[in-house]
From TrEMBL:
This is Fucose-specific lectin. The chain crosses the membrane at residues 68-92. It comes from Claviceps pusilla. Keywords: Membrane, Transmembrane, Transmembrane helix. The lineage of its organism: Eukaryota, Fungi, Dikarya, Ascomycota, Pezizomycotina. Residues 113-124 have a biased composition (Polar residues). Signal peptide: none annotated. Residues 22-45, 111-160 are annotated as: Disordered. The keyword Electron transport does not apply.
Length: 523
């Protein structure tokens, strides 16, 4: 049986059905598919494959991967390295040349003034000059070939010195039989907070930082720290300042240029002051307490306190005593810091003794010379009013020690009975002790005299003379060339005044203050 063409039969059947149902126009019959129907792709555009092809053409190369950029950077690096070596070589050559020139020409160290101005030599003050607050310094010219006293052997530094604008001043003079230990010191603070010493001794002037003369680093001084300096009979200088944490810190200089670190402490540890405390120091001989070094400060509660010791360098040897409150109300345009200062010992004359006449005065003097009525005089400012306080110590050492303080404003009254009032209000006090080291003087008036210098932030320094047996009298004082921010004195009658960047020197001759051009403080 022959095979049937099934598609053909199906097609014929469909045509027969259409013929029977009616005539269908040819346009309604879809055309047959084209011959290449199965040979073309139905999806149109090229299909996208889910993988990458490595192209035959490269894209543009970034600029930093090009050869010219690489070699340019290498060239710049070589240029900077070579330039750095050249600059370093030039600087070293210049510095070595300066050092060689200084060594060959005998020039002074950079910290020492190279001028040939006068340099002081300290001498003892004769007894006949007790009544005059004149300087007892002789001057001689330094030779041009003077070598620097601040050598590397002594640990000095050649770093330039710039004084801190808020630096305080402290000064003292030492007069002992050994001329090599007689000296004068001025201490100030530089902008790195280091304490810098200017020391006159043996006809030479030295400038050095205290930290360079210590075997261990002391507590760092706070910016603008108050300074207090005092000398003893053996020639040792005692320096007090405040650390950054307001700890009362202590350094001392037994011999010229050699410093050691101590501490102010008792059984409770170190002594902490208020953040804005002042400092002042003096020696006191009590009834049964001799040679006490006393430091005045105000504690965090603004209570004026005295720290005292007969052995300052000994650990835990300090005793604290209260005096009075030193709180001040804020006054616009004025300093809000407490203002007080220790004058030192004087031989107090009570009102009853003064009323008994000359005979009682002579009797009191006899007792005073035996150490009976010595009192520590303190000036304390409350606004524009200045009050006098006296403190006495008995039964030393602790724990049986007794400290008595009382207010004695009668010592600060003038001949008309007026109290001491200073307008504008004082910001700092400084004392000149006219009987310092001369307690055997023949004039009782001079023997009792102190000069109180007061500073109010302007260029005017006011002067008042007070004493146990004399009425207060106002002096001429002096006016500086510019505003004064800090003040310090020595027992020679020399005053150092700071304007913030410069220090001026004044001395008192025949009752008048004059600039002291012979004392060179330039660094």
């Amino acid at each position: 049986m022959p095979l049937l063409d099934i598609p053909w039969l199906s097609h014929q059947t469909s045509r027969a059905d259409m013929t029977t149902e009616g005539n269908i126009p040819l346009e309604a019959i879809p055309p047959p598919p084209p011959p290449d129907y199965r040979k073309t792709q139905r999806d149109g555009p090229d299909s996208v494959h889910n993988h990458y092809h490595i192209g035959h053409e490269r894209g543009p190369t970034p600029w930093y991967r090009r050869k010219w950029a690489f070699w340019s950077m290498v060239g710049l690096l070589v240029f900077f390295v070579v330039a750095g070596f050249i600059i370093m070589g030039v600087v070293l050559k210049v510095e070595l040349g300066k050092k060689a020139a200084a060594a060959s020409d005998g020039q002074l160290h950079p910290l020492v003034n190279a001028s040939t101005s006068a340099s002081p030599t300290l001498t003892d003050t004769p007894d006949d000059d007790v009544g005059e607050a004149t300087t007892t310094t002789k001057f001689k010219k330094k030779p041009d070939s003077t070598s620097t006293p601040t050598t590397s052997e002594n640990g000095a530094t050649a770093t330039p010195f710039t004084m801190l604008d808020s630096s305080q001043l402290a000064s003292a003079s030492v007069r002992v039989n050994d001329a090599s230990r007689s000296r004068r010191l001025l201490i100030r603070q530089e902008d790195t907070n280091d304490l810098l010493v200017t020391e006159w001794t043996n006809g030479q002037t030295m400038h050095y930082r205290i930290r360079d003369r210590l075997s261990s680093l002391p507590p760092e001084a706070k910016p603008g720290t108050p300074l207090a300096l005092q000398a003893d009979d053996a020639g040792t200088l005692h320096l007090f300042y405040l650390s950054r944490s307001n700890i009362l810190s202590y350094l001392y200089e037994p011999t010229t240029g050699e410093w050691e670190a101590g501490e102010v402490s008792n059984e409770h540890g170190s002594v902490r002051t208020s953040a804005y405390s002042s400092l002042s120091t003096a020696w006191h001989n009590g009834r049964r307490a001799s040679r006490l070094l006393v430091v005045a400060f105000d504690d965090p509660s603004q209570q004026l306190q005295l720290a005292m010791s007969s052995s300052p360098a000994e650990h835990g040897s300090w005793y604290l005593a209260d005096v009075t409150s030193v709180s001040r109300d804020s006054v616009p345009g004025q300093s809000n810091l407490p203002c007080y200062s220790l004058a030192g010992d004087w031989y107090s004359n009570t009102t009853a003794t003064a009323a008994r006449g000359a005979e009682a005065e002579a009797e009191s003097w006899h007792k005073d010379d035996a150490g009976g009525n010595q009192r520590l005089l303190i000036a304390v400012a409350e606004g524009s009013e200045v009050h006098a306080w006296e403190c006495g110590v008995d039964f030393w050492p602790p724990p049986d020690v007794q400290v008595q303080c009382k207010q004695v404003d009668e010592h600060f009254r003038d001949g008309a009975g007026k109290s001491l009032t200073l307008v504008p209000a004082p910001t700092q006090f400084a004392w000149l002790n006219l009987h310092d080291g001369q307690q055997g003087g023949s004039s009782t008036s001079t023997h009792q005299a102190f000069i109180l210098l007061s500073l109010d932030g302007s260029g005017v320094v006011r002067e008042n003379t007070v004493g146990g047996y004399v009425t207060r009298s106002a002096g001429a004082g002096f006016t500086a060339r510019m505003g004064i921010k800090a003040l310090s004195t020595t027992s020679e009658g020399i005053v150092f005044a700071s304007s913030g960047k410069d220090v001026f020197v004044y001395s008192r001759h025949e009752g008048r203050w004059q600039p002291d051009v012979g004392t060179n403080v330039t660094v």
